[in-house]
């Protein structure tokens, strides 16, 4: 079969070949197509309506805070495509789905139209006693949402669509909107997480500083009530004011340093999870000597500037000094910025977008920590110097000065922390997140599925495809002989091809088996006459062919009918013809001619009948038959005996042509034996029945040193269902016209 299919592929197939193949299998193709169409129609009729609701979101990259504050970290850009992909995965996460599930259960409990829910309801409630609740559990709804919710990004845009399908239009819209709301809330919490941490820290500091201020005010009030000094001179007031200003700056810097260190530790831990080597590399950035020296110099200049500002009234040239300080500070900060830019460029060149953003935050927090540390050191020195001045005040005023210093310092610190706390609240609440719900889902008024017409069309196409597939697969695995080309391509001579005899075998009718006698003007009769001609001219010597063996590979291939009609064709050509039945297994010639099987040539061999008794007229001029007679127990030995040779010689002397019908060559050796004592051997194969390898094996058995094998006859071949138009010319010249004459003009359409 593999060789046969391979050869077919080599030969190639034209469009016409495929059309013939489809026509051959037209009935099963139509039946399979109708079956597919029927299934599609039934499904389209019974399929429930599915409604689809969609919510549109705009997901933008995070932006920084609307207020600039040293306590608030800045957000950086992410890669757009990867960022949207990450957000879609968050949308699909279990946490978002769980929020949606809880919200849907709350809506169901509060709803007065519980029939408007379909997805979250237990369909077996009331039918199965094990089902205790009319709605599914949170976990069941959470798991089910993956199958009813689809989340897609619009191509090339930052727009994400959340679509929900349900048999309830109300539930579809509600679920889509709740899904978007849950994600938006989660996104806000995520974006505000850092701001919330800062707010909570400042709230704790605010409460502490408020308590310290209250205690210092109470101490000052008690001292004044006890009759102590109730007022300070201008020098003491000025000193306290300057000292408390620097103490407030020191405490503010200390708070900023604490916040920056907390943020830095958090960012470093996150970076270690993504890129440990880069985290170690950034660790060394904190110890960069050049940057450290610049930050320390900036801190000194800022402190000196603040001291100059505090003593502005004492010097006339303070404005020029402050301007010089500002210029130097700006120059140093520009150098820090330039150094940072070079440093960032080297790190960002080969880092992913997420790592870039995280690295940017770490570098910024590192800079804040170093700047705050340097400033804190300078402020500590300044405060110590002012403490020395403070302690040198007169003893009579020093107690009141201490109390006033504590109250003023705590008041300034409380006001500073309160300002930062309020700023943190505003930042937290003003942080909008990066999700904007553009279009809320609306209750759909018509179903999105099923498209019944499309289902029917797809069912028809699928059924047609299945039918065509059946035809092509059947043809691919079909290893039978179909056309004369299948025989000739294997270097085997084709003598002729016989079309299917119409009416033969219908309702047990065997009248057309002898077709050349019953309908001599038919196409099969003309084909048998062509076979007769080719047999006559298969060998050039005069009287070279007087005996012809007709055999087949397997039963039911038409060897007996071929033998009968070939003999009849020779008889019609005025040849004295003998038809000999040598099929000693299942003889049939006597049934074709409605004659008795006894006596036959085996009875003659055994002396049970005379020569004249076994030769019988057939009812057709010049045609005689010899039936098989009694079936012997050893047919092969009988056919290969000297008696058989003598019998054949005797028949040759009396008849012009002898046609022998024998058993199939594959089943028994009878035909192989007879082929050695005849002049010609013909193998009959049946179209769409005989397999290629069986034919080849039969030909090999019939080819021997006597060289009697002359070719193959293809039986039951119909040009309408095959790959060529071999018989249309037979049809044309054999078909009578209305006046009974043969057609001789242009071929009619067949």
CATH H level of the largest domain: which superfamily? Answer: P-loop containing nucleotide triphosphate hydrolases
- CATH names the topology of the largest domain as Rossmann fold
Helix/strand-derived class? alpha/beta
CATH level-1 class of the largest domain: Alpha Beta
Between the first and last Cα atoms, what is the distance in angstroms?
33 Å
Please count the helical segments. 27
Q: On the 0-100 scale, what is the average pLDDT?
A: 79
**Largest sheet, order of strands side by side?**
5-12-11-6-10-7-9-8
CATH architecture of the largest domain: 3-Layer(aba) Sandwich
Radius of gyration: 54 Å
Number of domains: 4
Say what oligomer this is: single chain
Q: Indicate the overall shape.
A: rod-shaped
Low-confidence stretches: 1-11, 64-79, 313-317, 721-727, 738-750
* Annotation, overall tally of beta strands: 12
Largest sheet composition: 8 strands, mixed
Write the layout of secondary structure elements.
Elements: H1 2-11, H2 15-24, H3 26-46, E1 51-59, H4 80-91, H5 94-110, H6 138-148, E2 149-153, E3 159-166, H7 169-191, H8 193-225, H9 234-274, H10 276-285, H11 289-310, H12 318-348, H13 353-391, H14 395-430, E4 435-439, H15 452-477, H16 484-488, E5 494-497, H17 515-518, H18 523-536, E6 547-552, H19 559-572, E7 577-581, H20 589-592, H21 601-605, H22 611-614, E8 616-617, E9 623-626, H23 635-639, H24 642-654, E10 657-661, H25 670-674, E11 680-686, H26 692-702, E12 709-715, H27 728-734
Parallel strand pairs: 5-12, 6-10, 6-11, 7-9, 7-10, 11-12
Antiparallel strand pairs: 1-3, 1-4, 2-3, 8-9
């Amino acid at each position: 079969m593999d060789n046969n299919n391979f050869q077919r592929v080599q030969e190639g197939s034209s469009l016409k070949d495929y059309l013939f193949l489809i026509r051959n299998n037209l009935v099963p193709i139509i039946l399979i197509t109708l079956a597919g169409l029927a299934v599609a129609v039934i499904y389209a009729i019974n399929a429930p309506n599915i409604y689809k609701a969609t919510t549109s979101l705009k997901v933008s990259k995070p932006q920084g805070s609307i207020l600039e504050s040293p306590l608030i970290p800045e957000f950086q850009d992410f890669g757009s495509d990867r960022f949207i992909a990450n957000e879609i995965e968050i949308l699909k996460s279990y946490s978002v789905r769980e929020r949606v599930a809880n919200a849907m259960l709350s809506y169901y409990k509060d709803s007065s139209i519980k029939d408007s829910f379909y997805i979250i309801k237990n369909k077996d409630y009331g039918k199965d006693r094990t089902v205790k609740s009319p709605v599914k559990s949170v976990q069941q709804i959470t798991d089910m949402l993956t199958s009813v919710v689809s989340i897609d990004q619009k191509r090339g845009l930052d727009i994400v669509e959340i679509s929900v399908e349900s048999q309830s239009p109300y539930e579809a819209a509600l679920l889509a909107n709740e899904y978007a709301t849950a994600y938006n809330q989660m996104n806000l919490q995520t974006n505000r997480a850092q701001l919330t941490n800062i707010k909570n820290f400042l709230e704790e500091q605010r409460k502490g500083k408020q308590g310290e201020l209250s205690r210092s005010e109470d101490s000052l009030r008690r001292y004044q009530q006890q009759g102590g000094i109730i007022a300070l001179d201008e020098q003491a007031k000025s000193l306290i004011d300057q000292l408390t200003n620097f103490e407030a700056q020191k405490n503010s810097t200390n708070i900023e340093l604490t916040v920056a260190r907390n943020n830095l530790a958090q960012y470093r831990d996150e970076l270690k999870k993504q890129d440990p080597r880069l985290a170690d590399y950034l660790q060394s950035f904190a110890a960069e000597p050049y940057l450290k020296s610049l930050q320390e110099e900036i801190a000194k200049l800022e402190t000196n500037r603040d001291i100059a500002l505090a003593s502005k009234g004492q010097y006339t040239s303070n404005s020029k000094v402050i301007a010089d300080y500002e210029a130097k500070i700006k120059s140093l900060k520009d150098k820090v910025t330039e150094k940072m830019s070079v440093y960032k460029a080297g790190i960002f060149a080969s880092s992913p977008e997420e790592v870039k953003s995280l690295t940017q935050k770490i570098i910024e927090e590192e800079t804040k920590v170093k700047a705050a540390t340097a400033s804190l050191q300078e402020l500590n020195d300044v405060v110590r110097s002012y403490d020395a001045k403070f302690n040198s005040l007169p003893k009579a005023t020093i107690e009141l000065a201490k109390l006033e210093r504590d109250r003023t310092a705590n008041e300034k610190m409380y006001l500073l922390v309160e300002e930062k706390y309020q700023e943190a609240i505003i930042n937290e609440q003003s942080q909008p997140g990066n999700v904007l719900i553009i279009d809320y889902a609306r209750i759909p008024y018509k179903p999105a599925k099923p498209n019944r017409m499309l289902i029917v069309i797809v069912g028809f196409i699928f059924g047609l495809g299945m039918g065509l597939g059946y035809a092509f697969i059947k043809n691919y695995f079909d290893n039978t002989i179909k056309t004369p080309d299948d025989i000739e391509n294997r270097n085997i001579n084709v003598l002729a091809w016989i079309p299917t005899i119409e009416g033969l075998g219908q309702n047990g009718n065997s009248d057309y088996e002898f077709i050349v006698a019953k309908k001599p003007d038919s196409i099969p009769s003309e084909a048998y006459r062509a076979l007769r001609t080719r047999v006559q001219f298969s060998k050039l010597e005069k009287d070279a062919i007087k005996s012809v063996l007709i055999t087949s590979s397997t039963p039911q291939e038409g060897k007996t009918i071929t033998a009968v009609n070939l003999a009849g064709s020779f008889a019609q050509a005025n040849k004295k013809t003998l038809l000999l039945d040598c099929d000693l297994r299942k003889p049939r010639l006597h049934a074709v001619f409605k004659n008795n099987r006894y006596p036959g040539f085996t009875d003659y061999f055994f002396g049970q009948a005379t020569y004249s008794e076994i030769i019988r007229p057939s009812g057709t001029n010049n045609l005689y038959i010899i039936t098989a007679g009694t079936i012997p127990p050893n047919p092969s030995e009988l056919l290969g005996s000297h008696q058989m040779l003598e019998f054949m010689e005797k028949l040759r002397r009396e008849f012009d042509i002898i046609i022998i019908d024998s058993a199939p060559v594959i089943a028994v050796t009878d035909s192989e034996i007879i082929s050695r004592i005849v002049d010609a051997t013909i193998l009959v194969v049946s179209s769409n029945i005989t397999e290629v390898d069986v034919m080849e094996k039969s030909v090999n058995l019939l080819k021997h040193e006597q060289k009697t094998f002359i070719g193959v006859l293809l039986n039951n071949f119909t040009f309408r269902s095959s790959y060529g138009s071999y018989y249309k010319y037979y049809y044309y010249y054999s078909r009578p016209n209305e006046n009974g004459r043969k057609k001789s003009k242009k071929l009619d359409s067949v």
